[in-house]
Amino acid sequence: MNESEPGEIAEKVRILEEQVSTSRNQRNELNKEAKKLAETRDELNEKFKRLKEEIQTVKNKRNELNAQVQSLKAKRDEARAVVSRNRAEVKALTEKLRALDTQAPGTYQSTKKDLEKLEWQIQTTPLSQREEYKLISRVKELEGQLAILKKKKEIEKKIAKLHNESKSIELQANIIHKRLTELAEESEVYHKRMMEIVSSATELKKKADEAHHAYMNTRTQGDNAHLEYVAKLGMIKELEDQIRSYYEAEEALKEEEIRKKIEDLATNKLKKGKKLTFEEFKLLVDRGAV
Question: Which CATH number fits domain 4-268: 3.40.50, 1.20.1070, 3.30.300, 1.10.287?
Fold first, then answer.
């Protein structure tokens, strides 16, 4: 190593130290940025988690409402089916009434009154056999009509009952339909709310993933900056070792030159018979000169 090399190495060390400082600062800044990105990512993920829980809550409420709607629809449809059957039965009974009307005109009460009047006449009025027979035939005729009218009355009663039942059931069906419509609308509100939250959650998750990706990239850059920082420290140490070795070798050479001068001086003194110092004598002994 010539004399100019230590200066060149020292200059390299200076440049490397500046680069080390830059790498250290860059690493520290990247680590700070990575920390902030990690915090942002974690915050976004926590918000996303809360939104997922809210989505499930809203979804459960919507599903609960939908189940109620389906149950009410089944009840409404069942009520309407009963009303439809009642109408069909009323139609059949009405046709039956029309047929009976031709067989027995008049009302049950007036026919019964006429029958009771004839029976009373037969019991209380002296009649000839022919007149009695004629009245008895009329009684039988009225009895037949009364039986038909009684059947008509029963049918009319049944029709009235079916009408009343249908009105009551229709009222219930309308109430049920109104309620299920309200529930369906409420369910739709919850569904829209759920879709809004899903949209927000999706966007939030996207941002969280982007933050995580940015964090990983920044973390990698920070790690690379740290590796570069460590590598340059190693280079500085290696160069400093070279400088130290140079100066140690130079110092050893100087010491050797001094010992050589002392040896030459001591040898000349010995040749001239002059007295040697202890150090001079010791040096000659070590060198094997005496």
Answer: 1.10.287
